[in-house]
Amino acid sequence: MIVLLHIAAWVLLFSLPYLLRPSSNASPPRKDPSSGNLFSFFMDLSWVGLFYLNALVMIPRLVYKKKYWSFGLVLILIFGWLITQTWILFRLFMNPAAYNIRIHLVFTFFIFLFILASSTAYQMIRDRIRAEQLAKEKENENLKTELSLLRSQVSPHFMFNVLNNMVALARKKSDELESSLIKLSSLMRYMLYEADEEKVPLDKEIEYLQSYIDLQKQRFGQKLNLKVAFKHIDNNYEIEPMLLIPFVENAFKHGTGWIQDPEIDIELTGRQNMLQFMVRNKFNNHFQEVKDKTSGIGLANVKRRLNLLYGENHTLLIEKNHDWFTASLRLNLH
User: pLDDT tens digits for 177-193?
Assistant: First the structure.
């Protein structure tokens, strides 16, 4: 396709003198009618050769490497050869007596400058586009690597908290331990086989959230006032896997413990190409929590992932007001 575009551009350029030529036959004398066409053909080949020689060889090897003296010397030699070639071709195909060295010197010089300027601009624009493409590919690879690292941070942090839940149930010798292990196996299956995908169906992500919430309900029982509402979920929506779980995980981590009448509210709607997700929990504003190395990983992680993946197509509001912590996410699913 690129080759055809180049051919078309050259054909159009070399056709301009014939298209714009006056109707009068004021052309240099020639030996026969076809000789002028041969003269033009060989000169056109020279200009095409100069264009690609300068663009593909001289610019990369001389100009980019700052060998300006060598570049200037090569240009002088090429210009001298073009003048000599014009004289030879004129003697072969035209009337030698009509050759005017001054006219052909000026004419060849201006075409020479035009071809040089065009080929230099062509190569520099071409290299600029290529550099931007490489930079974009590198940026995309860096983003993929960063997202992969961020996603890998989610799983160990989440599993750490879930295993703590298992330990709590085991200490209580709860009959719910078996069902909890089954729930845990479904969570691990999702993390192993679904979380590596770029996007997953929204209902799969909701199923994952529900399994996690069920595990937490088994742990806290009636001690926690938990309200969950997944409603108005349209089909065929997709989302980045494990994007919503940090909000829920954070609510259970900080919304239970030294809190009177702990309460967590979770709401999710997905319709008209828009996902609205809200998680709110009570927290003890007077209790100074002892932070470990994993504290804050979840929300900081998901903020970074949202910025990388959705940019301006999302809105995240996090508020603390009257002993309530609220995280509200609005996400454009398309």
Answer: 787 788 888 877 887 77
